[in-house]
Amino acid sequence: MTSSAEQMRAYKGPAFFSFGFRPFFLGGAITAAIAPLVTVAALSGVLAFNPPNGLIAWHAHEMVYGYLAAVIAGFILTAVPNWTGRLPINGLRLAGLAGLWLAGRAAILSADFIGAPLAMAVDCAFLIVLDLLLWREVITGKNWRNVPICILIGLLGLGNILWHMQLARGGTGTFGVHWGLGVVAVLLALIGGRVTPSFTRNWLAKTGAAPFAAPFAAIDKVAIAALVAGVLGWLFAPGAPVSGAILMAAGALHYIRLMRWRGWRTIAEPLVVILHFGYFWLATALVLLGLSLLAPSLIAQSAALHALTAGAAGVMTLAVMTRATRGHAGHALEADRATIAIYILVNIGAGLRVAAPLLPVSYNIAMGFAALVWSSAFAVFALVYGRYLVQPRRQ
After folding, report:
1. Exposure check for the chain: N or C terminus, fewer CB within 10 A?
2. Residue 1: pLDDT band by 50, 70, 90 thresholds?
3. pLDDT value of residue 216
4. Helices 314-328, 21-43: inter-axial angle, 10-degree rounding
5. For the range 37-42, what are the long-range contacts, defined as Cβ-Cβ under 8 Å and sequence gap of 24 or more?
6. What share of the chain has pLDDT > 70, as a percent?
7. CA–CA distances in Å: residue 387 to residues 18, 29, 90, 340, 382
8. What is the largest CA-CA distance in the chain?
9. Residue 221 CB-density burial (10 A; 0-12 exposed, 13-18 middle, 19+ buried)
10. pLDDT, tens only, 32-58
């Protein structure tokens, strides 16, 4: 069985389409760098921008089904060869898939011109095709362990369909966005729950530290089950106190899960410790979301949601994007100054966005500054890591 690195070196086409992380990490980063700033500028009246279906609906959709969908696709398409032992999806197939994602972004902006049905068909096609490709690879490679990932990608695609259907009926699309965020939370728990302890274990072994002593156990299963139950309660019974209680309990369980991985032992390695920060944001988001259901006067649901999106998703995606890009592009797995700056900016930006209602300045100013800081992390990634993504792998 050849490794993904060997398969990449054997590829003779354009480097940008040699592996899924290249076009999708760059496209996702550019979206995350631009969309929040455009939204804030439009809300403040600085920019005249009024997309079809409204500014807030566009922002929420593009952050979930644009930026996050792209990064998830980049990660999965890069991981699948190692999961299944099959050749990566690259070349024309990858270019077509990336073009489909890009067409979805254009379709959302031009829905008034091309019509809502066509915009829906074009935009929803990306996740449907991605899931079909993933199912094919997993079934052909008999990689049954990753069937849950296939199911979750399908559910993410269903959330996008629900968003469009809601808008077609005069709704706001909120349920479709919440559905997508629920799927993202579970994906973060599953994938983050794999890579965080795995990379921690590898780094501790490399440095000769005491053995890693936190294998997957019952507490991990209970934490994931509680998360799924909490998400279902939030989606279908947000007014029930038990939904908030389950989410807070799930958050507590994920704090325990995180503590078992002993991230403080990796503080000397930014590429590893940042994964622990991302998972901390996930546990925090669950607690805040539960609290927002139980006591909305104490915490607004928008703050809890941004703990999940700007915090957990933002930090975890950049952690994976930087590490995967460096490794697969042939660069040393070491965090340079730009990488450390990316990690600092995304965490500060997320913290400011969650705390915006509590800061002693105008809410609009706080929100705008938070968006600027958070988006800057992705802008730095696009500028610094962009050249790694478009150039051939270093030998």
Report:
1. C
2. very low
3. 87
4. 150
5. 37/371, 37/372, 37/375, 39/371, 40/367, 40/368, 40/371, 40/372
6. 97
7. 14, 13, 19, 18, 8
8. 62
9. exposed
10. 999 999 999 999 989 999 999 999 999
Helix (H, G, I), strand (E, B) or coil at 262: coil
Q: Which residue type does 127 have?
A: L
User: What does pLDDT average to over the chain?
Assistant: 93
In single-letter form, the type of residue at position 13 comes to G
Which residue blocks in the chain are alpha helix, DSSP H? Answer: 4-10, 21-43, 55-61, 69-84, 91-109, 111-114, 116-140, 147-168, 174-207, 218-236, 241-260, 270-294, 301-306, 314-328, 337-355, 363-390
DSSP 279: H
Cβ atoms of 328 and 8 within 8 Å: the answer is: yes
Distance, in Å, from the CA atom of 307 to the CA atom of 356, rounded to the nearest integer, reads 12
- Coil vs helix vs strand at 298: coil
pLDDT at 165 exceeding the cut of 80: yes
- Tell me if residue 375 falls in helix, strand or coil: helix
Distance, C-alpha 7 to centroid of its chain: 26
Name residue, tokens 């302890």. 197
Cα-to-chain-centroid distance, residue 303: 18
| Whether 114 contacts 121, CB under 8 Å | no
* CA gap 283, 168 in Å, rounded: 34
- DSSP state for residue 112 in the 8-state scheme: H
Taking 90 as the threshold, does the pLDDT of residue 360 lie above it?
Answer: no
Nearest in space to 390 (alpha carbons), one of 3, 126, 7, 29: 29
Domains of the chain plus CATH, in order, are 4-390 (1.20.210.10)
- What's the CA gap between 25 and 6, in Å, rounded? 21
